[in-house]
Design a protein that fits this description.
heterodimer, A: 600 residues, mainly alpha, ABC transporter involved in vitamin B12 uptake, BtuC, 2 domains, two-stranded antiparallel ribbon, 72% helix, 3% strand, globular, B: 285 residues, alpha/beta, Rossmann fold, 11 helices, 10 strands, 21% strand
């Protein structure tokens, strides 16, 4: 039992370091920094490289790692995050994810993806109290963290820059007017956060004993949850969140096994957010001074689209492309269409209801697995399984999401992120292996296996999706949902029950996500949990942002760019992610409301 | 005063120990215009927020037309017939002026909201939600008739501010001037056909001629028999439009009566310009 507690403390130690970095950056920039994830993996790999390959002593390697991470952090902030945060904090968040992907890929090119044994630089079981064993290594880690936290708190309390950091995180505008160099403060915070991330990475490698470039993701996600748990922007909260999560996780793994790790983490998160919507130490204002959920909605008017464009688009997408009979184009086209369906359905949640859900991979996975199960176990026809899969995705996702609609702002995004990951984790628990031989659709006894057939099915579904979304947008219901996204307090005062409509919007989006999942399953004929990643969820979000967050047809344009054009770069995955990042950055810089939205 | 439209008794609300509203009681009769005035931080806006359910009371009771409303959420209060505007102006920025007003009509709709009685019940609320979704996608003859009524009603409300809002009816609200946003907000509140209209500083940020315009519109509403609860700093407007004035300071009512009486009340003069040693609370958002 005590062993578990120690394990929890050591893990919590790492999470706390990472969470402080995330909270620090969030406080001064209002940006959720996914790039922090990469610094864990990077810190570990750099330390491994310095010690094993260059033969440096640990005490020299550690500061070197911190310096490299800090420098990288500065570069990232100057080149990507700060320029974008000015336009749209949300886009900055997505771009930090792109940065994190770029870093992971670069690190993979440099160090290869294989797990490396981390050298045992410090003894880790040379001491004991009673029959509980621990090592110098553990003591060094815990005491380093304690020292770091102490120095940080003194710095923030008494240091000139520290005070400037606190002032900036309370009110950026006011800080700027008082002559605080907000830009510098943000750079400093980013540098500190990145160095802390590197430190946490070294520690986790010391603790686990192995490291690889991708090992940062899970720890990063947990640190992120820890920061949220404590209350984004609150550093004390981040430390508490880190240790609480570390200890609870250690006991959870002790009792339920390692596969339940993510589920435990996100269940804790969601429970805390329901009880305290601003995290343990965070505060949510009684009446939001500005509509929190709507702040990311870009202001601007959708471009007027002449009727002939619709007709032309229909002819090109529905008739010309299938007639080309080019398999490569058609296969890419099916991907574009499926993502367009998912994203078009998502616009009602992200654009109209103003809920930036980051976990659409969850309902997509439900749809895919449901459809596979229905056709394989119950021998349903594909045509029946398709809508049923959509309904199941809507129902299951709605039940799971039902507690979170009172949560606001960034927290609701994080809660849905957790929801998506939890859904996929649960599916992995139930069906650990992939599913093969999912039947292809049949049309009066003929198996539809050609790319043209897939393409036409997807095209038909997309047309129906767009029609439904168009009807909803034009209706009273659509306006009511938009009012909730615009200003929930005012909507309530007009007799609109915001939570109900957010839940309905989410259910509609989950339905189309499930439909998309079903289409994917029957066209891949193989699915496993690794398909439904966080990257998939973020891709859906990026697609809608690219096209215009509340425009269903914008999702089609977004999908063509992000799925179609990216497909051209498939031969070089690293470059692809870099281009993805660049495209996003350019769109946000020049068309913050989306490609089909005129700036105002 | 059992014939009162709104009856507030011993209403209390504190913020972390600070008593923003400290046991106040007042009434609004049908067709009456009652104004609340007082220095900043005296608890006026908090009182409005309590009456409209935007925040919860810590004590006391609020009765509207015979129904207690101090324990229900603001959506239900809107359905009971209280519509409001906000101090800083809260329009739905991404919706057009016409759509803003249409949302205001939400609680008056029937055909577009089947089974709406179930909206407040756990799980059963999905029946009206799915019903609304069906109406939105397919529609019924009744809902199409109602859509026409919505359109007409929206036109009526826009007509109230024809010169200002007429040319802007299809523009998104974020593109409007400050004064036009306030007008849109008032139009949205009136679309609810409220028994009681609650206005929080409707002329804040307006110049003299715009204020005069609002005054005229308020007098028109008064003539139509609309009951109004008004918080306003511009005393000239308050004195003209109000039937009764309530003066608040430090969360309490320090004077109450006809405008001309209140104007000369020494405690009111002291609260506004006198040398007060204690400073009232800071609840205004």
């Amino acid at each position: 039992m005590l062993d578990t507690l120690i394990a929890g403390l050591l893990r919590g130690n790492v999470y706390a370091l990472g969470a402080v970095g995330i909270s620090l950056v969030f406080g001064v920039m209002n940006v959720v920094n996914f790039a922090q994830f990469s610094f864990f993996g990077l810190g570990a790999m750099l330390a491994w490289f310095f010690i094993t390959t260059l033969g440096l002593p640990f005490w020299l390697a550690l500061p070197l790692v911190l310096v490299v991470c800090a420098a990288l952090g500065l570069i990232i902030n100057i080149s990507v995050v700060r320029p974008l945060a000015k336009f749209l904090p949300l886009a900055a968040m997505l771009s930090t994810y792109a940065v994190s992907q770029i870093l992971d890929n670069a690190s993979q090119i440099a160090f290869t993806a294989q797990f490396r044994v981390f050298p045992p630089v410090l003894p880790n079981s040379n001491l004991h109290i009673g029959n509980m064993r621990f090592g110098t290594s553990d003591l060094v880690m815990l005491s380093t963290t304690a020292v770091v936290m102490l120095v940080m708190s003194l710095f923030l309390k008494y240091g000139k820059v520290g005070r400037a950091i606190r002032a900036t995180s309370q009110d950026q505008e006011a800080a700027l007017q008082m002559g605080i160099p907000v830009g510098l403060v943000q750079h400093v915070s980013f540098v500190i956060a990145s160095a802390l991330g590197g430190l946490a990475g070294v520690f986790i490698a010391l603790y686990v004993g192995v490291a690889n470039p991708a090992s940062g993701l899970n720890i990063g996600l947990t640190a992120f949850v820890a920061a949220t748990l404590g209350g984004l922007g609150s550093l004390v909260g981040a430390v508490i969140g880190g240790f609480v999560l570390g200890i609870l996780e250690a006991f959870g793994i002790h009792f339920f096994g390692d596969t339940s790790r993510q589920i435990i983490i996100f269940v804790i998160l969601i429970v805390v957010l329901i009880a305290r919507p601003g995290g343990l130490l965070g505060k949510v204002p009684l009446i939001s001074t500005e509509p929190l959920t709507g702040t990311f909605l870009g202001k601007g008017r959708p471009l007027r689209i002449p009727r002939w464009v619709w007709a032309a688009a229909f002819v090109v997408l529905g008739i010309v492309i299938p007639l080309l009979r080019n398999d490569y184009v058609l296969i890419t086209g099916t991907q574009v269409l499926i993502y367009a369906i998912i994203a078009a359905g998502f616009t009602v949640t992200a654009g109209q209801a103003g809920v930036l859900a980051l976990g659409q991979a969850g309902p997509i996975a439900i749809g895919a697995y449901m459809s596979a199960a229905l056709t394989m176990q119950l021998h349903f026809s594909f045509w029946v399984a398709l809508p049923v899969a959509g309904l199941c995705a809507a129902i299951v996702a709605s039940i799971l999401a039902s507690p979170i609609w009172g949560v606001k702002g960034h927290y609701i995004s994080i809660a849905t992120l957790g929801l998506g990951i939890t859904i996929v984790a649960v599916i992995q628990l139930i069906v650990p292996q992939g599913i093969y031989n999912i039947p292809v659709p049949q049309w009066f006894g003929t198996a539809l296996t050609t790319p043209t057939a897939y393409y036409l099915i997807d095209f038909g579904v997309l047309v129906i999706t767009l029609l439904v979304m168009w009807r909803i947008r034009r209706s009273h219901l659509g306006k009511v949902i938009s009012s909730v996204g615009s200003d929930e307090v005012a909507a309530l005062a007009s007799g609109v029950r915001g939570r109900n409509y957010k839940a309905l919007a989410f259910a509609i989006s989950a339905f189309f996500a499930g439909i998309g999942g079903s289409l994917l399953a029957h066209q891949y004929t193989y699915i496993d949990p690794t398909i439904f990643t966080m990257l998939m969820s973020l891709l859906v979000v990026t697609i809608v942002i690219m096209g215009g967050v509340s425009l269903p047809y914008g999702a089609v344009v977004g999908a063509i760019i992000l799925i179609g054009a990216m497909e051209l770069l498939r031969f070089t995955p690293e470059l692809r992610i870099i281009v993805y990042g660049l495209v996003l950055i350019l769109v946000v810089r020049f068309r913050p409301g989306g490609i089909l939205v005129r700036n105002s | 005063m059992s014939d009162a439209l709104l009856q507030v008794e011993n209403l209390e609300r504190h913020f972390e120990g600070l008593k923003a509203v400290d046991g106040i009681s007042f009434t609004v009769a049908p067709g009456e215009v009652v104004s609340i005035i007082g220095p900043n931080g005296s608890g006026k806006t908090t009182t409005l927020n309590l009456v409209t359910g935007t925040i919860r009371a810590h004590g006391g009771s609020i009765v509207l037309d015979g129904t207690r409303i101090d324990r229900v959420d603001s959506a239900r209060i809107a359905e009971h017939g209280i519509a409001r505007t906000f101090q800083n102006g809260r329009v739905f920025a991404t919706l057009s002026v016409a759509d803003n007003i249409e949302v205001g009509m939400h609680s008056t709709l029937r055909a577009n909201r089947p089974f709406r009685e179930l909206s407040n019940f756990f799980l059963l609320r999905w029946i009206p939600l799915l019903g609304e979704l069906f109406i939105a996608i397919i529609g019924t003859p009744a809902s199409r008739r109602e859509d026409k009524q919505i359109k007409n009603a929206v036109e009526t409300e826009i007509h109230r501010f024809e010169a200002r809002l007429g040319p802007r009816r299809d523009d998104p609200a974020y593109s409007l001037s400050y004064a036009n946003r306030r007008r849109t907000e008032i139009a949205r509140a009136l679309a609810l056909k409220p028994k009681l209209l609650v206005l929080d500083e409707p002329t804040a940020g307006m110049n003299q001629s715009e204020t005069a315009e609002v005054l005229e519109q308020l007098l028109e509403l008064k003539a139509e028999g609309q009951a109004i609860l008004l918080v306003e700093h511009k005393l000239d407007l308050v004195m003209i439009v109000s039937d009764r004035v309530i003066v608040m300071d430090g969360g309490r009512i320090i004077a109450e009566g006809r405008p001309e009486d209140v104007r000369h009340d020494p405690s009111v003069i002291e609260a506004y310009i006198g040398r007060r040693r204690t400073v009232g609370g800071g609840d205004e958002e």
